[in-house]
Amino acid sequence: MTLSFAPSSDPSIPLHVLEQASLEPWLADQPDQVRSWVAANRFTGALGQALLVPGPDGAPGMALAGYGNAARRARKRFPLAAAAEALPEGNYHIASGVAADALEVECFGWLMTGYVFDRYAASTPSKAKLVAPEGVDAARIETMANAELLTRHLVNTPASDMGPNQLQIAAEALAQECGAACSVISGDALLDQGFPMIHAVGRAAEQAPRLIEMTWGDSGPKLTLVGKGVCFDTGGLNLKPGASMGLMKKDMGGAANVLGLAQMIMKLGLNVRLRVLIPAVENAVAGNAFRPGDILTARNGLTVEINNTDAEGRLVLADALALAHEGDPDLVISIATLTGAARVAVGVDLAPFFTDDDAAADALARAGRTAADPVWRMPFHTPYEALIEPGIADLDNAPSGGFAGSITAALFLRRFVGDSRYMHFDIFAWQRSKEPGRSKGGLGQGPRALLTALPEILSL
Question: What 3-state class would DSSP assign to 64?
Fold first, then answer.
């Protein structure tokens, strides 16, 4: 599956995008037969309405898309996609009604109506194809859409077919496609090469734990992306209840989002030296699983008391972040489905992020609005550092009390990046119910905002 615009050389139907308030003025300039047809079909311009209007020969002469009003559109990420999903099969070009500054977002949303996850059962995508409007960067939009496709596919695939082995294969395939180098440290070699916490978390699973590394580019700032690749999370010996385990195939959503962002960066040729690190494990239950009360020593020498084996994501990320810091990067970004506390704080639709860099945070917030990929800054609140210091070890992986859980997790991770410039995302990576342009299931959260902000953040 590839998401793309319709060729501009192919015949296409003009599409007029109409707000409810603008319908009557627009109809006033139309022939009687158009006004009669619109009235007979009860088209009002409500958000998501779509209507083909026949021409004099009976063939489609134009199409109308309802655009609602500003208040209704504010509740949808991709409002035009609602009408795109209702249009019949065919090629369309936007003739009027979409502001220039909204075209990129609306085009992206339209392309995503073509996404389906049909690996296990047939599913039919929207068949209304859009011709790229003049003035938009069609190649960039297609690149973003197909990176989102990769992310969604990876998250949607169940752990039976998306364990550490398969995540490695996906990373290697992307590396080969984009001319990147890819290497893997697996099993007991993790101990030999200094990744004891990745090994501890994943050693009880049938598929060996591993650290996947991809590198690309030979000029520009050093950008390192670290993605949590917990392909399934039982909770370990602190076993999750069944209801909490149901979506744990998505616990590698950080890795999937990182790979999607990496694909965009490489396909668009950003002038960076890119490094991708993915600790890929399954947090399973067996006789050799790590235990509550264990004390692990991380790659950078810090000791960690295990007070909950279900707080495993920060452990595997810690070893990878320590390695990232050793490479003297200009920016490190970690993306993870890390804490339920982040969902309590901002819900599932926002991608919360942490950074000490005010200028980067401002750039990212603006980019999130521009790209319709909303993000929200959370604080690295240093006074909470005491909450992650248990006394018996340097750090506690699951401090008691239940307050500020997303912040204490972020502070835990910050201990492993030294003085590196650092941003951390704690995302949900899942769409709970279908919305225009967003099918139920795996979701990219943050990569398009990051792609838009990186030129400013890294002075590219």
Answer: strand
| CATH no. of 143-457 | 3.40.630.10
Catalytic residues: 240, 314
Q: Which among 310, 447, 292, 423 has a CA at the least distance from the CA of 368?
A: 447
Write out pLDDT tens, residues 32-73.
Answer: 999 999 999 999 999 999 999 999 998 999 999 999 999 999
CATH 3.40.220.10 fits 13-136, yes or no: yes
- Which of 152, 248, 162 minimizes the C-alpha distance to 442? 152
Q: What is the token pair recorded at 120?
A: 């296990």
Q: Tokens 């951390």 sit at which residue?
A: 424
Taking alpha carbons only, the member of 221, 424, 194, 415 closest to residue 329 is 221
Contacts of 175 (CB under 8 A, 6+ apart): 181, 182, 214, 216
Between 103-112 and 138-156, two packed helices, what is the crossing angle to 10 degrees? 40
- pLDDT tens for 392-431 read 999 999 998 889 999 999 999 999 999 999 999 999 999 9
10 Å CB burial of residue 1 (0-12, 13-18, 19+) is: exposed
Q: Rounded to whole angstroms, how far apart are CA atoms 239 and 227?
A: 23
CA angle 212–215–219, rounded 5-degree value: 160
Q: Quote the distance between the C-alpha of residue 288 and its chain's center.
A: 33
Chain mean position to CA 286: 32
Kindly state the DSSP code that residue 404 receives in the 8-state scheme. S
- Residue in the block written with tokens 């901002």: 346
List beta partners, residue 332.
Answer: 224, 422
Q: So where are the chain's domains?
A: 13-136, 143-457
Residue 380 CA from chain centroid, whole number? 22
Q: Which long-range contacts (CB under 8 A, 24 or more apart) does 397-404 make?
A: 397/304, 397/305, 397/306, 397/307, 397/308, 397/311, 397/314, 397/315, 398/306, 398/307, 398/308, 398/310, 398/311, 399/307, 400/307, 404/341
> If you compute the radius of gyration of the chain from its CA atoms, what whole number of angstroms results?
24
Q: CA-CA distance, 439 to 437, in Å (whole number)?
A: 6
Strands, DSSP E only, in 121-209? 128-130, 181-186
327-355 per-position pLDDT tens digit: 999 999 999 999 999 999 999 999 999 99
Token couple for 193? 């090469």
Helix (H) or strand (E) holding 345: helix 340-346
Render the burial of 243-278: b for 16+ CB within 10 Å, e for the rest: eeeebbbbbbbbbbbbbbbbbbbbbeebebbbbbbb
Distance from C-alpha of 156 to C-alpha of 4, rounded to nearest angstrom: 21
